[in-house]
Task: structure prediction
Amino acid sequence: MALEVQGLTAGYGPVTVLRGVDFRAEPGRITCLMGRNGVGKSTFLKALMGLVSASAGTVTLDGQPLHGLPAHEVPKRGLAYVPQGRRLFGPLTVAENLAVGGLVRRNDPARLEQVLTLFPRLRDRLGQVSGTLSGGEQQMLAIARALCLDPRVLLLDEPTEGLQPSIIALIQEAVVTLKGQGVAVVLVEQRVDAVLKLADRVAFMVAGRIEAGRDVAGLTASDPLFRTYVGV
Amino acid sequence: MAFGPFLLLALMEGLVTAAVLALAAAGLSLVFGVMRVVNVAHGEFYMLGAVLAWAVTTMIPGPPALAFLAAVLIAPLLVAALAAAADGLILKRLNYDPEATIVATIGLLYILQQAALSLYGPNAYPVTAPFEWRIQLPWFGYSGYKLFVVLAAELVLLGLWLFMTRTRAGLIMRATQVDRSTAQAFGVNVDRVYMGTFALGAGLAALAGVLIVPIQQAQYLMGHDPLLLSFIVVIIGGLGSLRGTLIAALVIGLSDGVISMFFTPTLAKILATLLVAMVLVFRPQGLFGARA
Result:
């Protein structure tokens, strides 16, 4: 019961970015993906969602193939994606953004209630145009929108980038709650302290491949793995 | 006729032009806003609406109102179906590339125009108005049908606004307009949205053609002016902005009516084109469009 990726090769037109990625994410665990800028972390998440077409390799969820599906079919199989930079539907209200997130689940009101319980601040902003929210609120909305899908796998691309510590703590708390609910979380993260605090496993990406991966238990911030693969 | 009543008549004529223009331009704006496709064939959908209205009304016997009602229902649907087919056969295959679709819709323009010429002929044919009511004002009588056109266009545009802001399909279209890729990540079938949008845009143009044909005659070259004016309206209002499109249609329609009546229709077109040039220089995103 997991998201399994084998030999995934993908890119943009003639440019190959991912070169045979092998990866696994399990329910109720947080798997972090680290690597320097430009190694293909964001492209990997996009390829999982079918937004970047793969030229080789397989992606399966609970044994069911996801590769080759049109992009709009992937979320129906249980994958949700929080893109880097949030990519909210800016002119739409908070409620409308959440409604787009819930399209696949036919906007189940019970699910919306669960999501708003996780991010109560959004409840007071439902009628506000999302582009006018603060950065932290926008990030909460981006995650909440993805959660309206009631996903089995949640892909988060640097969700705490550029946010103030109180908001980061709130988002991390939400991610841990989701893990407790059995969601497989794949988190692209550059901050070592966040990885050590949240992750069960960390994978290091170099030039479109996963070069190393290990459980986080026992790792410290001074581990050479971080210096080698992330440069910190 | 004194100046006041003459001005009133000009404004009423301008209102009719604005109503029909708003319908056609809303379709063009919708297609550009959601799909980022500049549809050069849009005027031909307007022409097809008018020509099909003539065909339907000549085929259906009985009172003109019944035949016209059939035309209002059938012609836009047929044109929308044709546009959906064009989307699947042409635009989708070009992956909606902005430059390639301009060239493709120029080709579509000539195909539709020449098909109309071949099947319909070069002559202009009238369509009988569904009713002949005349509203008698103290200074002049005015066609009740023309006022009906204004009312019908307003109702359709209100319906379009409600559709875009209050329905699930409208929400999907607006989300796709903002960010196609992210919309896909939430299960939106963008190809289907694009097909529906292109059909809806063409259907609106065709409906404008049906409404105008009892006032102007149906003819295979009648798509040129609405295309030019729709572009003028959409550029002034802001590409993709429905609100801007409606306001610009009102400004252009009313000024067209007044200037055409007091001076010449050519001067009205010249001034509208000058206005577009000024908007492009000083506010390229249009009066209500978002800055790129």
